Amino acid sequence: MELQIEVQNRKIEILPATDDKIHLDYAQSSKEFYDITLTDGVLVMTAQDAKEWTDFIGTSADLANRTIRVQIPDGVLASLTISTTNEDVSLPALSFEQGISINVNNGNIIFEQLAVGRTIDLVSKNGNISGAISGGYDDFAITTTIKKGESNLPTQKNGGVKTLNVTANNGDINIEFIPTATNSN
């Protein structure tokens, strides 16, 4: 199963589920709402609106009404794709069979220990990227692009069976690797 969230001006909090189901918690109105579809194992949530031009004048809705909380059971999703603007994306320790892709404009990407089978793609414009990845540094081929910020990752590192692509424009990158325990018999 895959989950894709494509929204604007929404804070996205990913939380661990207490059962084996995916839960979406969000607010909507007659002017701002979501299209949620499940097709061939892909759950897609996209933002929709029925606003007039005058609806864009003034203040934004309260943050509580602009926060999407998603509860995900660990290891259930093959992949997760998130895109948002003007708010942060935060994730707990989770594992994904294939990978994760997060793109944030004017917000931070904050995550705990992420485990992936193949790929991690993280892009932030005007925000920081920070967190921990399950696995060793040598497990990943790394490509880092940074403009007007600092990074603890190399610009390019070959090797590794997995891929880590990180891009930050006007923000810092701070990612640590947490080696997984191996059994020796």
Could you characterize what this model shows?
This protein has 185 residues and is mainly β. The chain is built from no helices and 17 strands. It has strands at residues 2-6, 11-16, 23-25, 32-39, 42-49, 67-72, 79-85, 89-91, 94-96, 99-105, 109-116, 119-125, 129-134, 140-147, 156-157, 162-169, 173-178. The strands form 2 sheets. It has a 9-stranded mixed beta sheet with strand order 4-5-1-7-10-12-16-14-15, with no helix packed on it. The radius of gyration is 17 Å and the shape is globular.
Structural class: mainly beta
Largest sheet: 9 strands, mixed
List low-confidence stretches: none
> How much strand?
over 45%
Average pLDDT confidence is 89
Question: Into which percent range does the helicity of residues fall?
Answer: under 10%
Distance N to C terminus:
34 Å
- Give the overall silhouette: globular
- The count of strands amounts to 17
Number of helices: 0
Q: Which strands sit side by side, in order, in the main sheet?
A: 4-5-1-7-10-12-16-14-15
Cα Rg? 17 Å
Write the element-wise H/E pattern from the N-terminal end onward. Answer: EEEEEEEEEEEEEEEEE
